[in-house]
Design a protein that fits this description.
Layout (H helix, E strand, L loop, with lengths): L2 E11 L5 H11 L3 E6 L5 E8 H11 L7 E10 L8 E4 L1
Parallel strand pairs: 2-5
Antiparallel strand pairs: 1-3, 1-4, 2-3
InterPro entries: Acylphosphatase, Acylphosphatase-like_dom, Acylphosphatase-like_dom_sf, Acylphosphatase_CS
EC number: 3.6.1.7
Organism: Marinobacterium sediminicola
Amino acid sequence: MAKICVHALVSGRVQGVWFRHFTREQAEANALTGWVRNLPDGRVEALLCGEEKAVRHVEAWLNQGPELANVAEVASTDAEYDEALTSFKIID
């Protein structure tokens, strides 16, 4: 299966609701590498890398997010696969 990366920007009520923590849990459960971080404008940004099916699964999850989140929009674009990523991290 092909390995891909997806860059996602998530807007709505996505900060202060454990969005990054639950994104990392979803990524790790699906054997993804990459990162997630809060942006100053209130959005969450993520890079999801791994097997295409697993990346698409977590990308779809971003549209829902954790229970306390209220996702308004997810803007995703394909990104170049980064072999240097070995884990999934929360960036502060």
